[in-house]
Amino acid sequence: MKYNFFDQLEKLKADPNHQLPADINKPMIEWLEKIGCGLGADLIADAQVKVRYEGIELVHDDNPNAKIAVQIDAGMVGERREYEIKRKGKWTAFVYRTIKNPNLNKQRPREKK
After folding, report:
1. Which of 1, 15, 26, 93 is a good FRET partner for 65, with 20 to 30 A between their CA atoms?
2. Quick one: which of 29, 33, 28, 3 has its CA closest to 18?
3. Poorest-confidence range of 21-30, 32-41, 83-92, 103-112?
């Protein structure tokens, strides 16, 4: 199921005890588990339960020239970024791809008339 970020945020503001849908970050958590990053999956699950605002940057010991960055807003992961470091001469580039969470829509709902 796809959830609207702003609808969930409104529910959280109206009721601080509102529980986010259990599967809201499922695609991101499953992907991290698939690549063997249980640490990242656990951190996202914890941030979801505690409705945190935080960023996570993950680096694997075997590939220090790559990292995964995840931004969490109100316990919801909107997207992840996968970075790769490229070097040429005296220049270093941080190349990244953005992968959106397919269970979360961050478009603002239209105003009701």
Report:
1. 26
2. 3
3. 103-112
* Side-by-side strand order, sheet with 76-88: 54-60, 63-73, 76-88, 91-100
Tokens of 99: 């992968």
- Whether pLDDT at 21 is above 80: yes
At 59-78, the pLDDT tens digits run 999 998 999 999 999 999 99
Q: How many CB atoms lie within 10 A of CB 43?
A: 19
- Residue 40, by phi and psi: left (phi above 0), alpha (psi -120 to 50) or beta? alpha
Give the pLDDT band of residue 15 (cuts 50, 70, 90): very high
Q: Is 28 exposed, middle or buried (0-12, 13-18, 19+ CB in 10 A)?
A: buried
Q: How far is CA 75 from the centre of its chain?
A: 9
